[in-house]
Amino acid sequence: MINGGLSALHACLAETEQVDGVMLGRAAYHDPYLLHRLDRALFEPQRDLLSRGELLRHLQPYAESQLASGVALKHLTRHLLGLFAGQPGGRQYRQILSEQAPRVGSDWSVVENALNAVEVLQGKAA
Length: 126
Ligand SMILES: Cc1cc2nc3c(=O)[nH]c(=O)nc-3n(C[C@H](O)[C@H](O)[C@H](O)COP(=O)(O)O)c2cc1C
Prior knowledge:
Elements: E1 2-3, H1 9-15, E2 22-23, H2 26-30, H3 33-43, H4 52-58, H5 60-68, H6 73-77, H7 90-100, H8 109-122
Parallel strand pairs: 1-2
Helix pairs in contact: 7-8
The structure holds flavin mononucleotide.
């Protein structure tokens, strides 16, 4: 198992030729989409990638269940801030989540707002 300093897909895949596994710390925060790209490359290379927006919407049932059990939205969205890093609209996405998620009573609509901002800027479904 290797741990530390890995952030590029090709570097992670190259390491798996030598070791059983690759551990990611900071990259999972800075670029969580990397986890999906790695998952596909390692386990389901024949399947197309889902978009960032699709992945985010798949999270909604889990997020709703957490909100219903009293978890604050900001504790969920802090792990999602990097999802659109380096993408058009990524800054607006991050800004909306950062500003609106900490508000008392905020719900999934904040995530939808952030995603809509990306989709408007990208002119298509993200
Ligand atoms: C958000 C975050 C949480 C982490 N939590 C743990 C932890 O619970 N236990 C642990 O041994 N290391 C933890 N680490 C350290 C990582 O496993 C790893 O050793 C370190 O981040 C270096 O790898 P990186 O270059 O991929 O970040 C954490 C790192 C980050 C960024």
